[in-house]
Design goal:
2 helices; 5 strands; alpha+beta; 5-stranded antiparallel β-sheet
């Protein structure tokens, strides 16, 4: 007898979880008919927007100073210079373990060739430079 009551209680519990059946109102538009209920796509990865520009003299001087501190004394050649709107405060060059502001950041990307190597510098909206180095290969 106990097994019969247990099965009955279990069946009632499962039936109670199903909830009442809902039928749409004949006057309410279906979800597919309402333009306000159109499903939206997930946010896409935001790419930086860049426009070629002439590099400011102050930025080039900061690059020369940084290269000098790294022991690079050869003349540098500007490969490219772009005004960029980065999708976040990492300036397109995140470092592991650092949390960056999620707001878009206007800045510069200046790539130079010096000492037989290409150097990729990123500048934030305040003009602060940061060398973007590729991750070391393991």
């Amino acid at each position: 007898m106990r097994a019969g009551w247990g099965a009955l209680l279990c069946a009632l519990a499962v039936a109670g979880c199903a909830g009442p059946e809902v039928t749409p109102s004949p006057t309410a538009p279906a979800a597919s008919e309402s333009p306000s209920r159109t499903p939206t796509a997930p946010p896409a990865q935001v790419s930086p927007v860049s426009v070629p520009t002439s590099p400011p003299a102050a930025a080039l001087e900061e690059i020369r100073d940084d290269l000098g501190e790294r022991g690079v004394t050869e003349p540098m050649t500007v490969v490219s210079a772009d005004a960029v709107t980065w999708p976040d405060g990492s300036l397109g060059c995140p470092e592991f373990g650092i949390v960056y502001p999620t707001a878009m950041e206007d800045g510069l990307r200046i790539v130079v060739d010096a000492g037989g190597r290409t150097w990729d510098y990123r500048f934030d909206s305040a003009g602060k430079p940061r060398l973007c180095e590729p991750e070391a290969s393991a």
